[in-house]
Amino acid sequence: MELFYKTTYRLRPSDFRPKNDTLSSVTLLDIFQDLAGDHATQLGLGFEDFIKKDLIWVIVSTRYEIYEDIPMYATIEASTWPRKKGRIDFFRDYKITYNGKTCVKATTRWVIANVNTRKVIIPRDIDFDGEYHEEETFEIDKLKEFDTTGLTLYKFVPQYMDLDHNGHVNNIKYAVFIENVLKLEHQIKAFSITYVKEAKMNDEILLYCKEDGTNYDIIGKVCDEVCFIARIER
C-alpha cells in the first residue's frame, strides 16, 4: 500500500481573509492538521491509537508556499504523505491542487511525546507500514529568535475553545493571533512557524512583530519564554 492520502474540500467565505479574499493561514493550517490526523488514523497511528499508550503527536514546525491563488467556493484536492522517519522526528508533506494546478505545497515536522510527562520519546517501535510516496518537497528553515526591544507588543489570552486534544493551545490558533495582528490585505508567498513551548488556557501570550519590507517576523512569548517563532514572506 502506498503511504498517500487524498481528499477534497469545498472552500467557504470564512476560509478567506475579509478584505482581499485570499486564503488565510488559519485555513491552510487547519487543512494540513485534518489531513495529517485522518491519514495517521487510517494507518493505525491516530490520536485514539496513541492515547491508549499514553502517547501523542506533537507538531514542531510547519512551512507552506503558495504558487497560485484559489477562488472562493472552489473545490480543491488536498493530499499528504509521510517521509521515512528520522531518529526522533517525522516529516510529512502536503499538496493542494485546483483545476489541475499545484497551488500550495507544505511540510510539517512532528515528534511523539508521552502525554503525562510531555517528554519526547525515541520511536523505536513506531513506523509507517507501506510504500513511501516519492515527490519533490522542500525543507523547513530554522527560525531564529530576535531582539524584541522596542517592538510593538500585542497580547492574547487563550480560552477553552483555543485548546486541542492534548490540553494546550491548538497550533492553528497561533495563526489566528498572527492574522489578527498583521491584518494582511494581500496574498503572501510563504508562511513558516516553529512551536517552541506549549501555551495553555489563560496564559498571557505576548506577540512581537518586526518588518523589513519583505518579511514579517513574529515571536510569541509566555512568561518571558519563547512560545513560537513565525515568518511570513510577502
Structural overview:
- This protein folds into 2 domains: 2-132, Thiol Ester Dehydrase, Chain A (Roll); 153-233, Thiol Ester Dehydrase, Chain A, CATH 3.10.129.
- It has 3 helices and 12 strands.
- It has helices at residues 25-42, 47-51, 171-182; strands spanning 2-3, 5-10, 55-66, 75-82, 89-98, 101-114, 131-132, 153-156, 190-195, 205-211, 215-222, 225-233.
- The chain has a 10-stranded antiparallel β-sheet. Strands 1-7 form a two-stranded parallel sheet.
- Helix 1 packs antiparallel against helix 3.
- The longest helix is centred in the first third of the chain and has 18 residues, at 25-42.
- The model has no long low-confidence stretch (mean pLDDT 95).
- Quick one: biggest sheet? 10 strands, antiparallel
CATH architecture of the largest domain: Roll
Q: Overall mean pLDDT score?
A: 95
Give the total of domains. Answer: 2
Q: Beta-strand percentage?
A: 35-45%
Our Rg estimate from Cα atoms comes to: 18 Å
Helix content: 10-25%
How many individual β-strands?
12
Low-confidence stretches: none
Q: Tally the helices: what do you get?
A: 3
